[in-house]
Amino acid sequence: MSTDGVHGLGFLGVRIEDRERFRAAVALHRDTLGLAVVRDEPDRLVWFRLRDGTELHVYGPEDVDHVAFGDRPCVGLVVDDVEGTRHRMEAEGVEFLWDTQRDGDRVWAHYRGPDGTVYELIGPTVG
């Protein structure tokens, strides 16, 4: 399978169950690194945007939607065609966790890598 369609990283997410560690991670990214906050729901999630547009999502103990991440970061790979890439990967036996999701002009799909880590394909709406 070719990886020609992977352009870079478009997303990094991490879920932190411990409330104090979550708050410390948020403070590090917001206060020490000065990342721009684009969404903040106390003890549930804080989304940051880097200058190149990449998003960093930190999910806390009140978040129940990203429990599948476990204690590992979820990396989003930017591709031209999420559905096409997903179909090729599924044909190779890769397990996708949920249906492909859409929000305006973005599409994404989460899969579990051979190491057990959850990854994400992310890209533009095609067609």
How would you explain this protein's 3D organization?
The chain has 127 residues and is an alpha+beta fold. It has one domain: Roll (2,3-Dihydroxybiphenyl 1,2-Dioxygenase, domain 1), CATH 3.10.180. The protein is built from 2 helices and 9 strands; from the N terminus they run E-H-E-E-E-E-H-E-E-E-E. The two termini are 23 Å apart. The mean pLDDT is 92. InterPro entries: Glyas_Bleomycin-R_OHBP_Dase, VOC_core. Residues 10-124 form the VOC domain.
SSE arrangement:
Layout: E1 8-15, H1 19-32, E2 36-41, E3 45-49, E4 55-59, E5 74-78, H2 82-91, E6 95-96, E7 101-103, E8 106-112, E9 118-124
Parallel strand pairs: 1-4, 5-9
Antiparallel strand pairs: 1-5, 2-3, 3-4, 6-8, 7-8, 8-9
Notable characteristics:
Glyas_Bleomycin-R_OHBP_Dase, 2,3-Dihydroxybiphenyl 1,2-Dioxygenase, domain 1, 127 residues, VOC_core, nine-stranded mixed beta sheet, 19% helix, globular, alpha+beta, VOC family protein
User: What is the 3D form?
Assistant: globular
Annotated CATH topology? 2,3-Dihydroxybiphenyl 1,2-Dioxygenase, domain 1
Strand content: 35-45%
CATH superfamily: 2,3-Dihydroxybiphenyl 1,2-Dioxygenase, domain 1
Q: Please summarize the sheet with the most strands.
A: 9 strands, mixed
Label the structural class: alpha+beta
Q: How many helical elements?
A: 2
Task: Give helix % range.
Answer: 10-25%
- Runs in which pLDDT lies below 50 for 5 or more consecutive residues are none
What's the average pLDDT?
92
* CATH architectural type: Roll
Structural domain count = 1
Instruction: Determine the N-to-C terminus distance.
Output: 23 Å
Reading the helices and strands in chain order gives EHEEEEHEEEE
Overall CATH class = Alpha Beta
**Rg, Å, rounded:** 15 Å
What's the number of extended β-strand segments?
A: 9
